[in-house]
């Protein structure tokens, strides 16, 4: 672990302010926030800015939650990010992904044309930082312009987050 969670005795008003845009007051503490947020709050201003962006992707995105979670899981798998994978398997199931959908993410396979285009978009952005014309066309058959924009930023955001988690050494949360 390169960047450990902020010790409980160092949580102050700046930390509370950083988390206030995303978490209710009862979760803005070291025992409820989880290892990722407890690590990120070592840099409160960055945390607040990141969470504002991430909140859009989670709660205001035009991309349906099921597709968002499909993309995030593919990012987590390709990035070997266990923390992100664990969190988003649960969120993916809540958004309607089946166990077979989740297993397919790991293989880069999907039975649905749109799901497959989402997986290809993640792969292409991770490999070349651009979605190819054929994949963009396949996405365009199902998603409008704003949804495609939200998809690109979702993949980028969760890719950056996976890099941070892996680099900082954030450990998965204990199951409660």
User: How would you spell out the order of helices and strands?
Assistant: HHHHHHHHH
By helix and strand content, what is the structural category?
A: mainly alpha
Distance between the termini: 22 Å
Number of helices: 9
**Apparent shape:** elongated
| Strand-residue proportion | under 5%
Rg from C-alpha positions? Answer: 17 Å
The helical percent reads 55-70%
For the structure shown, list the relevant keywords.
176 residues; mainly alpha; single chain; 9 helices; 65% helix; elongated
Structural account:
This protein is mainly alpha-helical and 176 residues long. 65% of the residues lie in helices and 0% in strands. It contains 9 helices and no strands. Helix 1 packs parallel to helix 3 (44-60), helix 4 crosses helix 6 and helix 7 packs across helix 9 (145-168). The longest helix has 24 residues, at 145-168. The radius of gyration is 17 Å and the shape is elongated.
Short structural summary:
This protein is mostly helical and 176 residues long. Helix content is 65%, strand content 0%.
Task: Give the arrangement of secondary structure elements.
Blueprint: H1 13-19, H2 35-40, H3 44-60, H4 65-79, H5 82-94, H6 99-107, H7 113-128, H8 133-140, H9 145-168
Helix pairs in contact: 1-3, 4-5, 4-6, 4-7, 4-9, 7-8, 7-9
């Amino acid at each position: 672990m390169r960047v450990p969670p902020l010790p409980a005795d160092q949580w102050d008003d700046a930390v509370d302010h950083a988390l206030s845009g995303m978490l209710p007051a009862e979760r803005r503490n070291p025992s409820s926030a989880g290892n990722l947020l407890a690590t990120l709050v070592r840099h409160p201003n960055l945390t607040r800015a990141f969470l504002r962006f991430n909140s859009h992707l989670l709660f205001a995105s035009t991309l349906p939650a099921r597709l968002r979670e499909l993309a995030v899981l593919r990012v987590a798998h390709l990035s070997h990010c266990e923390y992100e994978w664990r969190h988003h398997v649960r969120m993916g199931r809540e958004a309607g992904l089946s166990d077979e959908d989740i297993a397919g993410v790991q293989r880069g396979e999907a039975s649905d044309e749109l799901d497959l285009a989402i997986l290809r978009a993640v792969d292409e952005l991770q490999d070349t930082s651009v979605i190819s014309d054929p994949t963009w066309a396949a996405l365009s058959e199902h998603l409008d312009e704003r949804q495609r924009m939200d998809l690109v930023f979702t993949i980028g955001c969760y890719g950056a987050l996976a890099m941070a988690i892996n680099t900082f050494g954030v450990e998965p949360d204990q199951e409660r």
